[in-house]
Amino acid sequence: MKKPKKVFIDGPISPEFVANSIQKHQSKTSIGAHSLFLGQIRADEVDGKVVKGIEYTAYEDMANKVFHEIREATFEKYELSCMHIYHSLGFVPTGENSLLVFVSAPHRTVVFEALAWLVQEIKDKAPVFGKEIFEDDSHQWKENV
Amino acid sequence: MKKPKKVFIDGPISPEFVANSIQKHQSKTSIGAHSLFLGQIRADEVDGKVVKGIEYTAYEDMANKVFHEIREATFEKYELSCMHIYHSLGFVPTGENSLLVFVSAPHRTVVFEALAWLVQEIKDKAPVFGKEIFEDDSHQWKENV
Amino acid sequence: MATIKYFGMLAEATGLQEERMALEPQAVSTLKQLLLEKHPTLMGKDFRIAVNQELGDDNRMVSDTTEIALLPPFSGG
Amino acid sequence: MATIKYFGMLAEATGLQEERMALEPQAVSTLKQLLLEKHPTLMGKDFRIAVNQELGDDNRMVSDTTEIALLPPFSGG
Predict the structure, then answer these.
(1) Which of A101, B92, C15, D45 is the most exposed place for a label (fewest CB within 10 A)?
(2) Can you tell me the distance from the alpha carbon of D45 to that of C44, in angstroms, rounded to the nearest whole number?
(3) Residue A109: is its pLDDT beyond 50?
(4) Pick from A16, A35, A20, A14: nearest CA to A98
């Protein structure tokens, strides 16, 4: 098994981080299409209280294994040039991003479906846990549906 | 009719430009999902000659009208929070990006389909013309298929 | 005077970005014939004609006040 | 000794990130019963059990050398 790629990032995934990921692809001149997904933290209101951010934890060893498996399955399923997954750990404030999924291919047709599939796989299979923290510091546990 | 949004950009769409677009969404805290498409210039080889970049021209007045119509149709069709289209004019070197399509919504389900649909609409309907320039400065006209 | 614009490989073929021309009211199909005679380098090229920035069929009428554009296959993106 | 890890709301409910425990070879279902008795705050909570970082059914066997994790519903992304 290849060394799993680093997925987890401490805190939000900054716009500069995304820019840097895009930049790194410019030397791969067989790529014609990129598709990116970003998950942003919503200021949801629950019983009159507003979410100020999500605190993420993960079963990291298992998650890294799962990300690796998803990665392998993606390349089996779709003709991609490359793909990257980044997920935040720790606190991510409202309005900032906690997930970046980035797929690239010579032609565009494949990237949209691959991206949608990948995001669903991550939501379904990665042991990551989000605690929504409200402005009064109370919290509730998030659950993917 | 609202004033059409600016779509055309002189030269490549830089990673910093994308970062800046992402940054601008951080105050829109009802957004939970972004999906982005980037079109990157491939170093295609034709009869032994390698593409060094594409020179884009457009029927700008018509293109801006078309982009506006696509924009309106997208909001009719999909429940999006916002969307942005940026397209390069002039020379874009191999490895750099000439198209950015950026859609955002409260939840992720809609963004993938909206993005794929939008990119197809742009390719089909926008009067934009690409001249592939080879390393020996000869050229051929690109054609969307 | 009507304006006739040429784009992409058609601008290259005619050596023109645009030209101005007095036009009797006529169908797009008639104008097309006229332009092919005037610019034989357009012959065999695949193009569509936009009238006042709209695509449509060759029965549309054009006249002196019309903005006409000859558009080769699109290749944006 | 087996390691039992608790995540998310389960770590909150038990007050534990992990604990170590001597385990006779037994089915996951038996262990689950044991843990619910030991930590009544887990009662009624929705969770799955990973054995050596794999999800599966409650017939799987666990023993002293196993890494066990109690996982509440996932909410990454």
Answers:
(1) C15
(2) 72
(3) yes
(4) A14
B106: distance to nearest CA of chain A, Å?
A: 8
Residue D41 placed within a domain: yes
In a domain, C46, yes or no: yes
Residues of B in contact with C7 (CB under 8 A): 57-59, 127, 129
User: Which residues of D fall within a CB distance of 8 Å from A62?
Assistant: 50, 53, 69
Task: Report if residue D35 sits inside a domain.
Answer: yes
Dihedral sign from CA coordinates of A131, A132, A133, A139: negative
- Asked if residue D77 belongs to a domain, the reply is no
pTM of the model: 0.95
Query: What total number of domains does chain C contain?
Result: 1
**Interchain pair C73, B122: CB under 8 A:** no
Please list every residue in chain A whose beta carbon sits closer than 8 Å to the beta carbon of residue B95: 25-29
Beta strands in chain A (DSSP E): 8-10, 33-40, 45-46, 49-58, 82-93, 97-105, 128-134, 139-141
Residues of chain D whose beta carbon is less than 8 angstroms from a beta carbon of chain A are 5, 7-9, 11-12, 50, 53, 69, 71-77
CATH code, domain carrying D8: 3.10.20.30
Within chain D, which residues score under 70 in pLDDT?
A: none
ipTM, interface predicted TM-score of the complex: 0.94
* pLDDT, tens digit, 9 for 90 and up, residues B35-75: 999 999 999 999 999 999 999 999 999 999 999 999 999 99
Give contacts of B 20-39 with C, CB under 8 A: 39
- Tell if the CB–CB gap between A19 and B15 is shorter than 8 Å: yes
Q: Which residues of C touch B126 (CB under 8 A)?
A: 74, 76
The range of the structural domain enclosing residue D27 comes to 2-71
To the nearest whole Å, the CA of B9 is away from the closest chain C CA by 13
Which pLDDT tens digits describe chain B residue by residue (145 residues)? Answer: 455 689 999 999 999 999 999 999 999 999 999 999 999 999 999 999 999 999 999 999 999 999 999 999 999 999 999 999 999 999 999 999 999 999 999 999 999 999 999 999 999 999 999 999 999 999 999 988 7
Å between A26 CA and nearest CA of chain D = 27
Confidence of residue C50 (pLDDT cuts 50, 70, 90): very high
Residue D52 per-residue DSSP state: T
- Counting one residue from chain B and one from chain C, the pairs whose CB atoms sit within 8 A come to 68
